[in-house]
């Protein structure tokens, strides 16, 4: 059930001994060299770096993907330096290399660890083909603020979903053995708490109580460590007054002391020198001292370590033992990767870029990532027999680069199949497809083409509106304060709506958007995130009903920004809002009037519920859950309870459903969330089919970190829900007892 039960990576048993032997031959300068990563972007390499490589001053390079240059850098390091130590070649391979998969948040919406693992495997092979042997992914920051641009890089808000998919991604990159051709080292980032930056402003500060760190933000990292992740990256953010890069508590006491992490810690880009800007240190020397003492083993793209560590050792402020410990871990990874035997890359030894299987994996991931948010009167799927003309309108219908999303350094937009192309391919000559871009980009305020858009809509049988955000509106340093549809898009929706034809919105975006003003104006909404290279064919298959949508939201959709943070696993508080006040309009919860008698946790001007809850996602069929039950009303600590439900497909198409198990621990020594995801599984059912879905829950799956920080499971009453979203009523109960009387 838990993410931590994943198979762990096989490491080479001799790697540590070989690293130890090598370490004993190294000078202090060579050791510090291993702790330094430098930028090797085109133009800087290899001549620029040759001298430092020969001197053994560099342990790793970042940002070069030219296999000829990388092989040359390795050659200089291996053949011309005194000890011949090969390089770690780092690159951000976040959601694909050449073949781009959906943004991680979209992959989160698949709730499918096998697909996420396969996507990372494809990416690893493509990256390894040019000599990259280390990536800075997965990003497993719990993200509960859609204003934060980096939510796009995350798997969303949920501890179990993020942990499970993070582990899957680690396994995909690293494979069964790092030494296998096509495996690369993974890096769990950003440790820790980066997702909680104040007001969603990137790089801002975070204040997170220890219980929350332990029960929420740490958990995916603990799972990744248990799964054998090779490296961990620090966060740029200030954590409770001590920036993560200088935070000994998280990097040494927790990561190494409590979790036995045996890989190495890399700083984020130049984040050691930034300790001074934070106001923690006076200069680079102090920053290097704080960072190495806190537990940072390698500096990314900065010179605080290379310029200061030897002086700090000479002064006795940093022990050589601390340096040795860092270098041991770096060398061990190099031995684990087999770099001493095979420092060079033969691109021909790996499959070509964007191979058929890679594109098919990307298509499947995109297909399962799309979430059907709304589907009034079965507006979808479109029946090609019933429509003879289709208006395809909007700035994101035919935008090959934008559909790839953020962090795609090496992604190739020429490979993208856009929705417009895929729709035209699908309908062929049968349907007249009329395309109006209407806006140059998603931010445009120019409405000059809206008349054409509206008249085209009026002339067609149905309208497909491709809206959202282009890729630059999410990602690092791209936070937004207003997360509605940018530019004049809402006006475009209204103009097109006025034509009186069925309107289907397909939204491509890097975050949950606030859609309150749009949701009533359209008949259906398919949320496609940034779906990657094969987004078009996946979207077309869903629009025309070749497959039923099966994605589920990995993050709550707020109605308005003022609700943020809003997430399913909230605490109840002492005055929780009353669900009876909720009003429904068109099946969607609308404004719940507050009265002076309310006296509960409410905003006066909006409903307390989100626009769309975590786990939500409709299907073309009708899935019905019944008879949720437990195997035992009472279990002992250390025991297992089975929770089951009957799932039926009462519609008329075969479809997949993500079945979700939630629990609530009703009484805790620290208060517990109103719901916590404890299991999930995809089930495919034919029309008319009924299946029993069961989850085994061990009492260890119900632990939490208590007041003293230790994980406990406390006897008492638990509720359990099984359903197709976090907003479900059908539940059962069981009790954990210390021992049966
Ligand atoms: C980001 C990291 C990334 C690094 C290297 C930093 O700005 O925060 O996530 O891995 O750059 O590109």
Describe the largest sheet. Answer: 6 strands, mixed
CATH top level label of the domain at 369-543: Alpha Beta
By CATH, the superfamily of the domain at 369-543 comes out as: Glycoside hydrolase family 3 C-terminal domain
Mean of residue pLDDT values: 95
List the helices and strands and how they pair.
Elements (H helix, E strand, L loop, with lengths): L14 H9 L4 H7 L1 E4 L7 H8 L5 E3 L4 H14 L7 E4 L12 H7 L2 H16 L5 E2 L23 H16 L12 E5 L18 H8 L1 H8 L4 E4 L3 E2 L2 E2 L4 H11 L5 E3 L7 H5 L5 H11 L4 E2 L3 H11 L5 H17 L19 H14 L1 E5 L13 E5 L25 H9 L4 E5 L13 H10 L2 E7 L20 H9 L5 E6 L7 H4 L4 E4 L7 H9 L40 E2 L2 E2 L33 E8 L3 E3 L3 E10 L5 E11 L10 E10 L4 E9 L5 E2 L5 E2 L3 E8 L7 E7 L4
Parallel strand pairs: 1-2, 1-10, 2-3, 3-4, 5-6, 6-9, 12-13, 12-14, 14-15, 15-16, 20-28
Antiparallel strand pairs: 7-8, 11-16, 17-18, 19-21, 21-24, 22-23, 22-27, 25-26, 27-28
Can you describe what's shown?
The chain has 20 helices and 28 strands. Among the domains are: 18-89 and 303-336, no CATH class; 369-543, Rossmann fold, CATH 3.40.50; 567-609, no CATH class; 623-737, Immunoglobulin-like, CATH 2.60.40. The strands form 8 sheets. A 6-stranded mixed β-sheet has the order 11-16-15-14-12-13, with helices on both faces. With 741 residues, the chain is of the alpha/beta class. 56% of the residues are buried. Helices cover 27% and strands 18% of the residues. The model is unreliable at 1-6 (pLDDT under 50). The protein binds beta-D-glucopyranose. Beta-D-glucopyranose is lined by residues 92, 136, 189, 268-269, 476. The site of beta-D-glucopyranose has 6 residues, from loops.
């Amino acid at each position: 059930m838990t993410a931590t039960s994943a198979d762990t990576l096989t490491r080479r048993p001799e790697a540590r001994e070989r690293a130890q032997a090598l370490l004993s031959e190294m000078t202090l300068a060579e050791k510090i060299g291993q702790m330094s990563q430098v930028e090797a972007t085109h133009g800087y390499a290899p001549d620029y770096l040759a001298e430092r490589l020969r001197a053994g001053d560099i342990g790793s390079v970042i940002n070069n993907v030219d296999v000829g240059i990388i092989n040359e850098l390795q050659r200089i390091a291996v053949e011309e330096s005194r000890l011949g130590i090969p390089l770690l070649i780092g690159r951000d391979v976040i959601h694909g290399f050449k073949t781009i998969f959906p943004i991680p948040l979209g992959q989160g919406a698949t709730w499918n660890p096998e697909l996420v693992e396969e996507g990372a495997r494809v990416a690893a092979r493509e990256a390894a083909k040019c000599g990259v042997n280390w990536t800075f992914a997965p990003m497993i920051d719990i993200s509960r603020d859609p204003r934060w641009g980096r939510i796009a890089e995350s798997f969303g808000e949920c501890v179990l979903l993020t942990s499970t998919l993070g582990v899957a991604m680690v396994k995909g990159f690293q494979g069964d053995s790092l030494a296998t051709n096509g495996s690369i080292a993974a890096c769990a980032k950003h440790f820790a708490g980066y997702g909680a930056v104040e007001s969603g402003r990137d790089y801002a500060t975070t204040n997170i109580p220890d219980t929350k760190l332990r029960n929420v933000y740490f958990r995916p990292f603990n799972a990744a460590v248990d799964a054998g992740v090779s490296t961990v990256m620090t966060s740029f953010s200030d954590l409770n007054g001590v920036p993560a890069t200088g935070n000994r508590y998280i990097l040494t006491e927790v990561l190494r002391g409590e979790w036995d992490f045996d890989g190495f810690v890399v700083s984020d880009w130049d984040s050691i020198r930034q300790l001074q800007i934070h106001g923690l240190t006076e200069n680079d020397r102090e920053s290097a001292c704080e960072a190495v003492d806190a537990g940072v083993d390698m500096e990314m793209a900065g010179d605080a370590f290379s310029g200061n560590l030897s002086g700090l050792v000479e002064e006795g402020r940093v022990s050589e033992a601390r340096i040795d410990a860092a270098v041991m871990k770096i060398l061990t990874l190099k031995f684990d990767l087999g770099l001493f035997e095979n420092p060079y890359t033969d691109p021909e030894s790996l499959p070509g870029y964007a191979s058929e299987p890679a594109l098919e994996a990307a298509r499947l991931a995109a297909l399962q990532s799309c979430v059907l948010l709304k589907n009034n009167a079965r507006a979808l799927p479109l029946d090609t027999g019933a429509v003879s003309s289709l208006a395809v309108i909007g700035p994101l219908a035919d935008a090959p680069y934008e559909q790839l999303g953020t962090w795609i350094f090496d992604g190739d937009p020429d490979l993208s199949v856009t929705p417009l192309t895929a729709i035209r391919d699908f309908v062929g000559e049968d349907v007249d497809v009329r395309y109006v871009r209407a806006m140059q980009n998603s931010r445009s305020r120019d409405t000059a083409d809206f008349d054409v858009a509206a008249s085209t809509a009026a002339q067609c049988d149905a309208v497909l509106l491709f809206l959202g955000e282009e890729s630059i509106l999410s990602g690092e340093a791209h936070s937004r304060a207003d997360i509605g549809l940018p530019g004049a898009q809402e006006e475009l929706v209204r103009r097109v709506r006025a034509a009186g034809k069925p309107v289907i919105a397909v939204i491509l975006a890097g975050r949950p958007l606030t859609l309150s003003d749009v949701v009533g104006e359209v008949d259906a909404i398919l949320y496609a995130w940034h779906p990657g290279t094969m987004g078009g064919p996946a979207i077309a298959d869903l629009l025309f009903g070749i497959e039923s949508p099966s994605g589920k939201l990995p993050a709550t959709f707020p109605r308005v920004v003022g609700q943020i943070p809003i997430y399913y696993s909230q605490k109840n508080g002492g005055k929780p809002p009353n669900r009876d006040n909720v009003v429904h309009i068109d099946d969607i919860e609308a404004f719940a009037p507050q009265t002076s008698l309310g006296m509960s946790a409410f905003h006066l001007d909006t409903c307390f519920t989100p626009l769309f809850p975590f786990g939500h996602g409709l299907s073309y069929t009708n899935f019905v859950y019944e008879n949720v039950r437990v195997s035992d009303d009472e279990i002992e600590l250390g025991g297992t309870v089975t929770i089951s439900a009957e799932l039926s497909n009462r519609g008329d198409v075969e479809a997949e459903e993500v079945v979700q198990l939630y629990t609530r621990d009703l009484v805790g020594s620290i208060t517990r969330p109103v719901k916590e995801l404890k299991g999930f599984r995809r089930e495919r059912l034919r029309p008319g089919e009924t299946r029993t879905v069961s989850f085994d829950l061990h009492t260890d799956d119900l632990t939490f970190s208590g007041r003293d920080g230790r994980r406990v499971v406390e006897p008492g009453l638990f509720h359990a829900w099984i359903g197709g979203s976090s907003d479900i009523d059908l539940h059962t109960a069981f009790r954990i007892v210390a021992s049966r009387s």
